[in-house]
Write a structure and sequence with these properties.
about 290 residues; mainly beta; 5-stranded antiparallel beta sheet; 2 helices
């Protein structure tokens, strides 16, 4: 099948041994103590085949709904799945699972989510610098009004945060985020969105933060910049401003850099979109 035939939000591409694995937000199927989610594989990024990933819930896993934005990383010889989810009486958070295979079976690395239990969080992901793992996550606007992005140091086995984290960006101060409305616990709230944070370090050592929010033309991919990993990030530009977003970056087997995001943002029309992206004049540019 083609990408135009795949209905998925928040697409994430993992290249492994000549095969590209495409994950995304898709409704899963619960079978007893396991849950299966559709995923897709390709050798050329053009033709795709459907497969599945399997999660093991046999040890009383805490969450039961809103399984969103799976990011999968190869770390220390194993595959780690970052997945946002929620349960009645619990705040939304991102949990980490581990497997020997890109498709599972994935088991939780710890009993609790990797994001703080006292915060409503989502879209946590992994950033590694000099062999040190960091957690990057969104503190959700539905709870705090002004959505924020936080970075924390992780233990080497990815089982715990080693500090309280540093807020590196908030949506309102970015100057490019429009206020939107939503529902939280049945009540109408409004605020500013910070979705899908991602850090990219340029060849010169400049840090670029990619994130998604709502602007004048709908959902977008914004770029903010900082001279240090945990410093304040200032808005630089909109990388994509056509009602698509939730981006990630990966390198093809031929060495070309690609960006993946869903387009448009309207359900059920969203589809995975892959574009070439390059570093130019100390920033990123979509080709």
């Amino acid at each position: 099948m083609k990408l135009s035939q795949i209905h998925v939000r928040d697409p994430f591409v993992l290249p492994v041994d000549g095969v590209y694995y495409l994950y995304g937000t898709i409704r899963g199927t619960r079978r007893g103590d396991t849950m299966e989610f559709p995923a897709y594989t390709s050798r050329d990024l053009t033709e795709w085949e459907e497969t599945k990933i399997t999660l093991d819930f046999s040890n009383g896993f805490w969450a039961d709904s809103d399984f969103w934005a799976p990011d999968v990383f190869l770390w220390r010889g194993k595959y780690y799945l970052f997945l946002s989810c929620i349960a009645e009486g619990r705040k939304r958070g991102t949990h980490i699972f581990v497997s020997d295979s890109p498709t599972g079976i994935f088991t939780p690395v710890s009993p609790d989510p990797i994001t703080p239990r006292d915060r409503q969080c989502l879209d946590a992901t992994l950033y590694v610098e000099d062999g040190v793992p960091y957690l990057l996550y969104s503190w959700e606007w539905l709870e705090v009004g002004n959505g924020r992005i936080v970075i924390s140091r992780l233990s080497d086995d990815l089982t715990e945060r080693l500090d309280d984290g540093v807020e590196i960006l908030d949506a309102f101060s970015s100057g490019i985020s429009n206020e939107i409305s939503g529902l939280r616990r049945g009540e109408k709230v409004s605020g500013y969105v910070t979705d899908s944070p991602l850090i990219y370090k340029t060849k010169s050592g400049r840090y670029l933060l990619l994130w998604s929010t709502f602007g004048d033309n709908g959902y977008n991919i914004a770029v903010a910049a900082s001279d240090s990993l945990t410093g304040k990030y200032r808005h630089e530009k909109l990388l994509f401003d056509g009602d698509g977003g939730h981006a990630m970056l990966f390198n093809t087997f031929e060495g070309e850099k690609k960006i993946s995001f869903h387009l448009p943002n309207s359900s059920p029309l969203e589809r995975p979109c892959l574009r070439a992206v390059t570093e130019l004049e100390n920033t990123l540019v979509i080709q």
